[in-house]
Amino acid sequence: MTFILITGSIMAISIFLIYRLCRFFNIEMKWTSLVLCAVMAFIVNGMAITMSPFLDRGHYLRLGILVITAAAVVTIFNERMLRREEALAGNCTVLPTEQLPVEEEPPAEDILPAAMQEPVAEISPSEPVVPEGTAQAEQPAAVQEIPPEEKSAAPQKNNEAEKAVEEAKLAAQAIAEKEAKLAAEKAEKEAQAIAEAKARKEAKERAEQKKREAAARKKAEAEAKAKAAAEAKIRAEAEEKARQELAAKRQAHEQELKQELASMDSLDAILDFAYEAKDAQPKDAIFAYHEAISRYGDDDYTPFLVIELGNLYKEQANYSGAIAAYKQALTMPIIAKNDAMCQEFTKNIHYLGTVQDILAKHAALSTPFPQIPGDIMQEIETEFQAHSGSAK
C-alpha cells in the first residue's frame, strides 16, 4: 500500500510539472492526454515490476522501450485530439435555429447610394433573414448548413474519445488491482516467512533447552553415581576394616579358647564347655566341637559330635558349614567303615543342599533352620523326597 501511494504521488507531481512546462513553452496539451499519460505511467510501472527483479542491462533496455512507446502513444493521441478540435473549429457553422451576432453598421457616408435605391426583395419563408445593411455577398458565408456526414462524425469521435478514456480508466484500475494483489501476496509471504523463522527459532531454542537439561541431568546423575560409588567404597572399606578387626579379635579369641581347651584332659570336659557356650557363645561351642572331633576322632562318640556340630551350624543358618562338616566327617576312618553312618551323613548332605536351594529361591537363605516357615518346610520336604526317589 505504501508503494502504491508513493508511486501515485510521484506520478501526480510529474503530470503537474508536464502541464506547467507545456504552458510555459506555449505547447497545447489536452486534459485527456494528461489522463492517458497517467494511465501509461501506471502501465509502464506495473510492467517494469513484473518484467524482472534484477536491474540488469536488459531490464533498463526494456524499460526504455516501454517509456518511449508510452511517450509516442501520448504524443500521437494529443496530436490527434488537437487536429480533431481544429477540424471541428474550422467547420463550425450556425444552425438555422441559431442567430448570428449583429455586426456594427458602417457609417452612413460609407454606404453607396446605389445600394440604398435598390428595391427590397421579397423574402421567402425558407430563406434566412439577413439584417439590414449587410452586403448580399456576405449572406452565404454567414449562414451555412452543416453536412450530415460531419454531424454524424462528431458524436462518433466524441464516443471514441470517451471510450478511450474509459478503457484507460479500466486499465489503470486493473493495474492498481494487480499491484494491490501483488503487494498483498508479498505481505502474506513476508508474514509467512517471519512466522516460519520464528517457529524455527523457537524450535531451536527448545532443542537447545532440552540439550542443556539433558546435559545437566546427565551431569547430576554422574555426580550422584560418583557420590554413591564413593560412599559405597567408604562403606566397603569400613566393613572390610570392621571385618578384619573382628577376624583379628576372633582369631585372638580362638587362640585363647584353644589354649583353654588344650588344658582340658577329657572329652567330657570339652563337651561340657561346648554345652554351656552353645546358647551364649555358639561360635565358641562350634570351635569346641571341632577341637573335640580333632582330638578324639577315633572315639565311638565322634559321629554324634558331628551331628551336634551340624545342628549348631543349622541353628546359625550356616548350611554351607554344616555340609562341609558332614563331608569332612565322611573321610574319618571311624565313619567311613560304618556304612549306615555314611548313608546317614550323605542323606544329611543332600537334605541340607535342598534346604539351601529352596531358601535361596525364596530369598531367605539367612533364616535359621528352626525358624523356617511351615510352607517352605513342606516345599523342602517335597523337593527332597522327589530328589531321593529319582536318586533311587
From TrEMBL:
<keyword id="KW-0812">Transmembrane</keyword>
<keyword id="KW-0472">Membrane</keyword>
<protein>
    <submittedName>
        <fullName>Colicin import membrane protein</fullName>
    </submittedName>
</protein>
<feature type="region of interest" description="Disordered">
    <location>
        <begin position="122"/>
        <end position="164"/>
    </location>
</feature>
<feature type="transmembrane region" description="Helical">
    <location>
        <begin position="60"/>
        <end position="77"/>
    </location>
</feature>
<feature type="region of interest" description="Disordered">
    <location>
        <begin position="200"/>
        <end position="222"/>
    </location>
</feature>
<feature type="transmembrane region" description="Helical">
    <location>
        <begin position="34"/>
        <end position="54"/>
    </location>
</feature>
<dbReference type="InterPro" id="IPR011990">
    <property type="entry name" value="TPR-like_helical_dom_sf"/>
</dbReference>
<feature type="transmembrane region" description="Helical">
    <location>
        <begin position="6"/>
        <end position="22"/>
    </location>
</feature>
<keyword id="KW-1133">Transmembrane helix</keyword>
